[in-house]
From TrEMBL:
It is a single-pass membrane protein; Single-pass type II membrane protein. Keywords: Cell membrane, Membrane, Protein transport, Transmembrane, Transmembrane helix, Transport. GO terms for biological process: protein transport. This is Biopolymer transporter ExbD. InterPro entries: ExbD. Its main location: membrane. Coiled coil: none annotated. One of its GO terms (molecular function) is transmembrane transporter activity. It comes from the Bacteria. The chain crosses the membrane at residues 20-39. It holds the Pfam family ExbD.
């Protein structure tokens, strides 16, 4: 038995076998070559947007003004006192109900504003608001 000779079959190899490593690297290279073009060549499409919720129609606001003389104005048009309950009832019947914005002159008697608010309440108008102007400082 001579030590150091390579003819003996039981001797341990001193070099790393590169063949399995090269096989694994080639398989990975082929996988990347196949998948990269698929990821990059997507077709850009601008799809339409849709929702399942019905669109809420926003009603117009009613601009109700009371002048300093006590005259009523419905969207800038003068109306008689007798027309007010009918117009308010027609607007209260709409779905969705519009908002009633009341603009009262600061010189008008409170009684005229209170009558208009009472008529709106009796007609069934649920949304009533007051429009004011900010103080000038």
């Amino acid at each position: 038995m001579a030590f150091g000779t390579q003819d003996e079959p039981d001797e341990v190899m001193n070099e790393i076998n590169m063949t399995p490593l090269v096989d694994v690297m080639l398989v990975l290279l082929i996988i990347f070559i196949i998948t990269v073009p698929v990821m990059k060549h997507a077709v850009n499409i601008d799809l339409p947007r849709a929702t399942s919720e019905p669109e809420q129609a926003k009603p117009e606001n009613i601009l109700f003004s009371i002048s300093a003389q006590g005259d009523y104005y419905w969207n800038e048009q003068k109306i008689a006192d007798g027309e007010l309950p009918g117009r308010l009832a027609a607007e209260a019947a709409k779905n969705p109900q519009p908002e009633l914005h009341i603009r009262g002159d600061k010189e008008v008697r409170y009684e005229r504003v209170a009558k208009a608010m009472s008529a709106a309440r009796e007609a069934g108008v649920r949304k009533i608001g007051f429009i004011t102007e900010p103080d000038a400082k």
